[in-house]
Amino acid sequence: MARPNAPAGENKRMSMKRVAAASSIGTTIEFYDFFIYGTAAALVFPTVFFPDADELTGTMASFATFAVAFFARPVGAILFGHFGDRLGRKRTLVWTLLIMGFATVAIGVLPGYETGAFGIAPNGIGVAAPIILVLLRFLQGFAVGGEWAGATLLTAEYAPQGKRGMYAMFPQLGPAFAFFLSSLTFLIASLTLGEKSSAFLDYGWRIPFILSFVLVAVGLWVRLAVAETPVFRQAQRKRALDPSAGPKLPFLDAFRYQWKEILIAGGALASLFSLFYMSTAFLTNYGTKTLGLSRVFVLSAGMVTAIMFGLSIAASAMWSDRVGRRRVIMISCIIAVPWALVLFPILELGGGFAFVVGLLGSALIFGVAYGPAGAMLPELFEARYRYTGAGMGYNLAGILGGAIPPLIAAPLIAGPGSIWVGVMLAILSSVSVLCCYLVVETKDKDMSVENLGAGDSSAVEVG
User: What is the CA radius of gyration of the chain?
Assistant: First the structure.
């Protein structure tokens, strides 16, 4: 808590430090829970939940459950966006954290198709196991759908003019921290229990899920110490004077007045999502199953990739305060087009070095786009439905780039060949380049006022 007699500038700095910590810790925990599922889907879920399927079918089924969360995310964005725009960013973010924590711990104690969990149902629960897994994965996506927009609004609406990119990078760093932690926990479990030990399949993979309980408790403690954002408090005062000033249904108003921004934002970020989840989830499976690399090596490479991802996020976010969000994101998308076409030919050279080059190259490219996104999306939308609008744009990108590519990559590799996965990623990146071209720069916008009038789509350049 800031000291009552401290200078105003010091209190302001302390407040921003607390906000930055709360947003970063929150997204770290949410995405840790999200990523450990992706790692487990790549390494163990085909065996634990789909034991009767062949390797290709088991992998596809496992990544199908992974994709479920992306279709749940827009639902979470709509519901939590409604409450975030009506009741406040802080209270809504507490609920997203609690729901994610419950779903993740529940997966950790869920018996498999033929195996139990810590003495529960020692012979498994049959077909109920994958069904419950899908429901819990839906809850994870539901929570993440409301988390990201609220966390970025927490920093963007507190940040001083001209420094929104820098402060908005803190919630954006959460996925980098989370990817490192998820790889680390699985690495420790593999090293402790043995890479080929049945103990890892029996209970070792469950430990990272159950440890989420501790992280959620820490996250709640930090998040509850943060006050509501100044912009939302301003909106509350406005509604107190004029009850008709705020939207009754933020979702409908966001689509009524700024549907173009939602669609364009989703398209602009599809490239980074496609490279992001192909790298963090699908390539983990590809490295161990197709390239024959050890689980320890692949997880260690993931940790190095997470560090490079975080560095590129920080550098690009601060750079966007100088040159603009649109330019930085567009540069990333342009580079992603040729990179997508050479990614799998590089991987197919074989060996650990080629795998690391593929991971690191992808991380640097999508990190450059991810850094400014935390400021750009909140800047695109009016304060009265900003939570909803930013969340919908972000999670639309998640479906386009995060759900579909990992799901269809396995059959593409098994059928026409891996080069077609690169073609698919290049097409998505080309769409993102076009969408970036249609976005007007937002870095100089005043977020404390309604900078877009009803029916005005001036944040999108058409024609």
Answer: 21
